[in-house]
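To whoever is covering the structure queue this week,

Two jobs came back overnight. Logging them here so there's a record in the thread.

Job A:
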Amino acid sequence: MLEPGVYDKGEVKLPSVMSGLLSNLPIDAGAVMVFIGVAREIGKDDKKVIRVEIEAYDEHANRAIRKICDEVREKYKLSLARIYHLKGSFKIGEPMVFVVVAGRSRRQAYPALKEAIERYKKEPAMWKKEVYIDESWAWIKE
């Protein structure tokens, strides 16, 4: 099974991630929840975005993402917690991050998913740049 972490765009595809996870799902998992973060068209100050660029300090980001997954899995007693964050240049609507959690019930999985999402936006050494229609750009802090 693919380890949580940072990957180049195109290296990880959602259908193959989901297929791999579902085919290896522990038998006690009654709820699987997925979050897919995509590049959006309206950015900072309501400016029109034409692309989003994601950069990462891989070593730190991978360590932080794995720590988030481990801690969320333990805290909520999950069967699994995975974060796959992509880096590169993304057109509007393209997926940039996949977060997957599985637990005995939605009561475990839902708050775990929310926490994993909030933490991946703050803890790993990753940077997001919005490029606007006029070719100006801004680094975005979540």
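Job B:
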Amino acid sequence: MRFSELSLSLCALLVAGPSSVASFYLPGVAPTNYQLGDRVPLTVNRLTPSQSEQDTQVRSVFAFDYYHHAFHHCEPEGGPKQKSESLGSILFGDRIQTSPLELHMGKNESCKAVCGKQTFQPRDAKFVNARILQNYNVNWNIDGLPAAQKMIDANEAIFYSPGFALGQVHGTDTQTPVLNNHYNIFVEYHQASQDHYRVVGVLVEPASSIDSKLLDDGKVECGDIAHPVILSEKDATEIVWTYSVYWVPSPTSFATRWDKYLHVYDPRIHWVSLTISALIVVALVGMVSTILIRTLRKDIARYNRLDDLGLDDFGGTSLDDTVQEDSGWKLVHGDVFRPPRYPMVLSILVGNGAQLFMMTGFTIAFALLGFLSPSNRGSLTTVMVMLYTFFGAVGGYISARVYKFFHGESWKQNIAYTPLLVPGTVFAVFFLLNLFVWARQSSGAVPFTTMLALVSIWFLISVPLSVGGSWLGFRAAESTPPVRTNQIPRQIPPSTGYLRPLPSMLLVGILPFGAIFLELYFIISSIWFSRIYYMFGFLFLCYGLMIVTSAAVTILMVYFALCAENYHWQWRAFFTSGASAIYVFLYAMLYWVRALSFTSWTSGVLYLGYSALISALWFVLTGTIGFVATWAFVYRIYGSLKID
């Protein structure tokens, strides 16, 4: 598909309206029917940093286990049991366990004790107070739904935000942390049929009272919220964990129960951004089409006409000089397919970029079609890992084809390095960053068994598939260049102005970044603010606009370089297209300054490390898009020339 056709198709989707980009989801799990009095399981998850109405910044990136000893949460009889989780859920830090809280369908409970008194020593109090000041949230799940707080966005739209506050901060000057030790649980249920009920929503309103106490008869008396729990960092503090349960009938069906949680923040901003990006793409593609179609057709026709006439000297001017008056790209036909420096590295990066490209595209498509239901925790990450694994065959094949085209001779090294170099670097960085998480005793640290599972998937599935793809690539017929390569390299005039490497990278990189920067904001927010990202319709369009923009501007820049008689287009195409990663990293740093305020240097190291890692992968992905598009373009235009 031509750039113009693809860009017009994307614009047509924009004009079609919100329904075109509103992704949907399949329920993902079969509904559980309860009868009146049946026990409804409540499981607990990690405690995560978040923001509050008073403080909109995130101050930590570390999650903690719900049963961390410092929190003194009541454990179920016999100890908490770990629930089975998906690979993606574990990688994102979920640690789901059983709890002692008892909920029975349709049975309201008022002021019930979770367990006996709990004593906070000064050391534990200091730890918990620090987490309260950092706006940590408690995360529960009831029948697969997260316990949430009711929130109102800037447009006064009501939605459910997963998690509820560990505590509150009283006062503006002194900022006294207050621990929530009472939970009002509102469970919304829908009657599916006679005597069958389903959970369709969960809200928790936490409160605090130091006056709560256990009575001699085993009952509990909830105290006045006017006297909150303030944990002393000098003396021991005793508290009682209590909760109340209220069952609320709801017309919401099971199939749509997630709609309250999947909130699109201000869709008008998305539409404005997409419209601007689409207009930029149309203008850009129009410019590229005008230059490349009109100019190139004219140049090629003129060159071929003169070549057919056999005019070595046309009016006292040589053929090369005649053509050079219009453009110099034809003068380098004998050098344009000369192998670049380090063809091994370039082919490996392009192969891994193709693997990332396929993984990203299919993941977004699956999410857009509703196959990645939010009820299946970690399904998005699991699918990404598995798709990257299986697309190892694509990475190996593309790497082999590129390396073979550049007349590489060390084919064994190419086969070995393609599945090892980039994934190995990513895994090494991930492992080092995980050490920081482990050192902070965070529940977000990936367990050793999960690391072992990742390595097993890598070496037992991805590497063999990559080797098989490389074998097919080297076995396939070689793509011969359309023109012969001269034995003596042509001298390259010095580059000036925007054609120098750094200016060209900065100019080209900003346009693909402009197509995705808004969605990048919401993706970063969902990661560090522990939100559910669900705007895959917008993300799909942004991804398409980014592909078209990266290809178009890279082709344009390489065309200008060829006209300046610079035939080293291979690495130039990769670096200029991948330069949008520079802006992605700078944007992540700006987000740090504007939305994050870490209270420990380890949080900063973790954020910086993951931002650099994601930016590096983005560089490989977008660099591959620009390289492949430019490769096809160069092959096409020089294949149109008639050269003896």
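Note for Job B: Residues 38-263 form one domain.

Please reply-all if you pick these up so we don't duplicate work.
Q.
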